[in-house]
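Worked example 3 (structure in, sequence out).
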């Protein structure tokens, strides 16, 4: 691992936004909050995967993977991060190095690939991702990117996050560091207002940002940049002129929020777009921060008026669902911010959360779960549930429905229990007041689908065998 990468990882670990980390000694703080996995054991994704997930939703940028072709995944409909315009991000670009490149180095191939991408696509910028193989053979992507930017007149951004550096969450932060080092603060926005905000750690999955933006528009709050869902390179480059930052997925890009506070004095808060009460709290906090930073004083009053109208409308629309869903039990297998933010939304729908996965959650996420679930919350926090244990929990009817990612759906189907996708591959947007109604409607459809009654009914030959057994 190169000295520059080691230094960057140490900088990422020295995170001022983590209260627990800051309580440690300087020596202990540099070790980081979690033990890093060894190369090849980064379960749930490697650092390269995390960096690309965090940055690929920037839609007008060409994302070029410097490594073997197997490192480039399917970019088309990647994680369902939607774009309101450019589609450049949906095309996969890779240098596709071979054995000779491993022996002689692949820097010339990288420079040639950057030129080809710029000539064919004319993107706003090119992001170059280091991978394990090119990192181990010593390709200096930062030097190549500097040379390419000078030669071709386009921003070329090195993302030094090879997979062997650690797990996916570390890669999220290393991708964010690339923005801090090479993008944010490099362009002045054409227009600024007293109500400009950045939304950090929001990926516009299935268009969720578009369910929240109309609420902000109604208040006169402008999203200067979203990092990174439906993001534009120039907007992110001028993000340092915002008046406040909102942190959505706190542990994926917390370093962006804290570094921007240090460098440009931009305050930030952590909020959630899931659930009625959490959405209202987020709007209030945005208004409070902006007023403190010079926005019109009546912004808070206008926010309260909007919240009252939207809450009344949302509660009325889910009233019938609440009566049907009251007392139904949910097993939530997800992680990170959703391990607590979705819990709040489910409780508002009258559902009981019998377990929530905290495998990828931070200490702060777990504290929020305890606040939401009260006494006995620890018993409902599942650190690591094997498929066999998951199946047993569903088969014993400790839950009426499971909400998880696609990889767990077959466990629920085998147990003949309803399942709904809650992770990034889903096709429905669940953010904001409108998203809350959509989420509850989808849960209702899944729970009361008549197919479950049919698949649980014994087959005719099973019934006959049972009758014959009784007769004997």
């Amino acid at each position: 691992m190169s000295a520059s990468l080691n230094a960057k990882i140490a900088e990422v670990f020295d995170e001022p936004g983590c209260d627990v980390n800051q309580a440690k000694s300087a020596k202990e703080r540099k070790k980081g909050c979690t033990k890093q996995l060894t190369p090849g054991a980064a379960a749930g994704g490697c650092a390269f995967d995390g960096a690309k997930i965090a940055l690929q939703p920037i839609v007008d940028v060409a994302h070029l993977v410097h490594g073997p072709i197997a490192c480039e995944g399917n970019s088309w409909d990647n994680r369902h991060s939607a774009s309101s315009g450019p589609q450049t991000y949906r095309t996969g670009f890779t240098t596709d190095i071979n054995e000779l490149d491993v022996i002689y180095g692949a820097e010339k191939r990288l420079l040639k690939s950057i030129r080809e991408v710029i000539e064919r696509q004319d993107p706003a910028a090119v992001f170059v991702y280091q991978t394990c193989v090119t990192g181990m053979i010593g390709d200096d992507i930062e030097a190549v990117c500097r040379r390419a930017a000078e030669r071709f007149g386009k921003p070329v951004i090195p993302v030094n996050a090879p997979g062997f550096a650690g797990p996916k969450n570390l890669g999220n932060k290393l991708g964010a560091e690339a923005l801090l080092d090479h993008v944010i603060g490099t362009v002045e926005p054409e227009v600024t207002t007293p109500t400009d905000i950045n939304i950090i750690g929001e990926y516009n999955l299935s268009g969720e940002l578009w369910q929240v933006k109309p609420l902000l528009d109604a208040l006169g709050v402008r999203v200067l940049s979203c990092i990174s869902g439906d993001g534009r390179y120039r907007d992110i480059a001028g993000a340092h002129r915002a008046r406040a930052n909102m942190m959505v997925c706190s542990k994926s890009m917390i370093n962006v929020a804290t570094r921007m506070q240090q460098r440009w004095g931009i305050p930030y808060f952590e909020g959630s777009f899931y659930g009625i009460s959490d959405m209202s709290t987020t709007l209030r906090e945005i208004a409070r921060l902006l007023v403190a930073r010079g926005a019109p004083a009546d912004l808070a009053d206008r926010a309260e008026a909007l919240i009252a109208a939207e809450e009344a409308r949302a509660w009325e629309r889910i009233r019938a669902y609440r009566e049907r869903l009251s007392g139904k039990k949910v097993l939530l297998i997800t992680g990170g911010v959703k391990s607590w933010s979705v819990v709040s939304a489910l409780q508002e729908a009258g559902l009981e959360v019998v377990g929530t996965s905290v495998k990828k959650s931070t200490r702060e996420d777990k504290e929020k779960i305890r606040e939401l679930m009260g006494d006995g919350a620890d018993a409902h926090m599942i650190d690591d549930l094997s498929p066999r244990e998951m199946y047993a929990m569903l088969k014993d009817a400790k839950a009426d429905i499971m909400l998880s990612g696609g990889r767990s759906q077959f466990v629920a189907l085998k147990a003949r229990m309803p399942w709904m996708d809650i992770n990034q591959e889903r096709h429905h947007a669940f953010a904001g007041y409108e998203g809350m109604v959509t989420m509850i409607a989808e849960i209702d459809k899944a729970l009361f689908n008549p197919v479950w009654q049919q698949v649980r009914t014994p087959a005719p030959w099973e019934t006959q065998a049972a009758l014959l057994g009784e007769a004997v």
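Notes: The radius of gyration is 24 Å. The chain has a mean pLDDT of 87.
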